[in-house]
Write a structure and sequence with these properties.
It is a single chain. By secondary structure, the protein is an alpha+beta fold. 53% of the residues lie in helices and 16% in strands. It contains 20 helices and 15 strands. α2 packs across α8 and α4 packs across α5.
Length: 533
């Protein structure tokens, strides 16, 4: 069986394992995981094996960076939650590793080496590339030794998983039952009561209702915080206009870069183009090179000057001979037509160091040819709009809510009548609405709104309640819908190849479920002590 498992690790399981290594071990801090720490720094014990503060710190930091990369400004801010997740991940890895070792699973150096060389992530033209390996590894912040150990632990932990998944099986009755559910079709009718049905009703909103809504939702009526910034901007194009090379300088540059001006004649013989023929190109290349050098030099000077004089841009502007420009007012979410249109600028402008501490920003590289330094010019705090200015807006909102409530009430009243025995046609005629007859729909049908389809497959099977049609109410974008299910047809597959594919999917699903139960059992049975708890 182990040989079969090894063979499968070269196929579809490979993607699972590489994801585990890169995304899990790199995230949780594999380096510190294996190096450990001092006895006084223990944060948890797993069956007597200690986990140290250093491990947790590295695991937390990698998790925090991953969250920032993945979610940006929406990344979780609660350090406590991230630290708990990081510690739990370390505990899970240690527990599963111990379980694999206790069950006699082993990973040899040859397996690790063979697996590493077979990873497509590190191959160039079908062969393992050391350069590609080092390039990809640098992004994970792991050393070569750490990564190889990560492969070993990952393969070790995955041995029981593969054994369970690859030996799992599904009985024909289980496969048939799953097919009957997944491919099931339901005979569905529905009608929609639109919100517009009650739009013409004169729903009076009392002043005290408006005031109460205003008091309860003040955050909705705050003006956004705004700032305006002063800034120094240096661009490659601006620097290029200040460079006026002499003809001798251009000729020297041409002679130093003759290979750049070689032209193939008649498709065979290369020939160096004369200076006069390429003078414009020479000047363009010369100016750009000198401008890039000057831009790099100015970046360092600008960074030093604005850091040494953090409360003003005047010093840098005067010494470097650049004007101080000013933006219009902008919010963190919406910029103007100037440099505030860039999210990077807005994020820095509203940062604690620039907005609250009133310091110059670091040099911001907008693109390879543009750099900017900011300083706050004006700041308008968020303020509450007066009730008088938003009362009409609140009144319209409350009227919409009332119309939606009236629509929902009408739908529920109709549902009550249907359940009491009133015929569908009688119910529909009371509001002059027609039923939409869709016929039989599968679980993945697209001809009706998802909310209608979801409800249709949640309602009981009429065959189980005496054959009576089943009804329900759900909200849809335009109003509320009443859904009727009249009958159900079990799903079937007649093609033997399709049936076999489905059977394998059921088998794999059961295997993964069995492994998850195994994993939970192992983790639950481990003796885990978290210090301070």
């Amino acid at each position: 069986m182990l040989q079969t498992i090894r063979e499968h690790t070269q196929g579809w399981v490979a993607g699972v394992i590489i994801s585990l290594i890169i995304l899990s071990f790199a995230l949780w801090g594999i380096h510190s995981y294996f190096t450990g720490g001092g006895a006084n720094n223990v944060v948890a014990k797993v069956n007597g094996t200690e986990i140290y503060k250093e491990q947790l710190a590295v695991a937390y930091e990698r998790m925090r960076r991953q969250a920032q990369f993945q979610y940006g400004a929406n990344a979780p801010k609660d350090d406590t939650v991230l630290k708990k997740r990081a510690l739990q991940a370390l505990i899970d890895i240690e527990t599963l590793k111990q379980a694999s070792n206790s069950q006699g699973f082993l990973i040899s150096d040859q397996q690790i080496d063979a697996y590493l060389q077979g990873m497509p992530e590190f191959q160039v033209n079908g062969k393992f590339s050391v350069d590609k390996f080092q390039q990809e590894l640098a992004a994970t912040m792991l050393s070569t030794g750490d990564f190889l150990e990560a492969i070993k632990v990952s393969l070790l932990i995955d041995q029981p998983k593969l054994g369970i998944v690859l030996t799992s099986f599904a009985m024909p009755d289980e496969t048939n039952y799953t097919i009957s559910l997944v491919n099931q079709e339901r005979e569905v009718d529905y009608l929609t009561i639109p919100f517009q049905q009650f739009a013409n009703q004169n729903i009076a909103i009392k002043p005290e209702e408006i005031k109460a809504y205003y008091d309860q939702h003040k955050n909705d009526f705050m003006t956004p915080e705004q700032v305006s910034v002063n800034y120094i901007q240096v661009t490659l194009n601006d620097l290029s206009t200040t460079i006026n090379p002499t003809d001798n300088a251009l000729k020297n540059f041409y002679n130093e870069n003759l290979n750049s001006y070689v032209k193939t004649v008649n498709g065979v013989q290369p020939k160096v183009q004369s200076y006069d023929d390429v003078k414009d190109k020479v000047r363009e290349a010369y100016v750009r090179q000198r401008a890039e050098e000057k831009l790099a030099e100015l970046r360092d000077k600008l960074a030093d000057m604005t850091y040494e004089h953090p409360d003003t841009l005047q010093y840098a502007a005067q010494n470097l001979n650049f004007p101080i420009q000013t933006t219009e007012m902008f919010t963190k979410d919406k910029g103007g037509k100037d440099i505030s249109q860039y999210k990077k600028i807005r994020d820095v402008a509203f940062s604690n160091d620039v907005l609250t501490m009133q310091n110059n920003s670091d040099v911001i590289q907008l693109n390879p040819e543009t750099m900017v330094v900011l300083h706050i010019n004006k700041h308008a705090a968020s303020t509450l709009l007066p009730l008088d200015s938003v009362s009409k807006q609140i009144e319209a909102k409350l009227q919409t809510v009332a119309q939606e409530k009236a629509t929902e009430t009408a739908a529920n009243d109709m549902l009550t009548k249907l359940k009491a025995g009133t015929t569908p046609d009688q119910v529909a005629s009371s509001l002059n609405i027609q039923w939409n007859k869709t016929g039989f729909l599968g679980r993945y049908a697209t001809k009706v709104d998802n909310a209608i389809l979801d409800l249709a497959f949640q309602l009981p099977n009429p065959a189980n309640v005496g054959g009576k049609s089943m009804f329900g109410v759900t909200r849809v974008p335009t109003g509320f819908a009443i859904v009727a299910v009249h009958s159900v047809q079990d799903g079937k597959i007649t093609d033997q190849k399709q049936y076999q594919v489905f059977a394998e999917q059921v088998q794999n699903s059961q295997g993964l479920l069995e492994y998850e139960l195994y994993k939970q059992s192992i983790i639950k049975s481990a003796k885990v002590t978290v210090m301070g708890q």
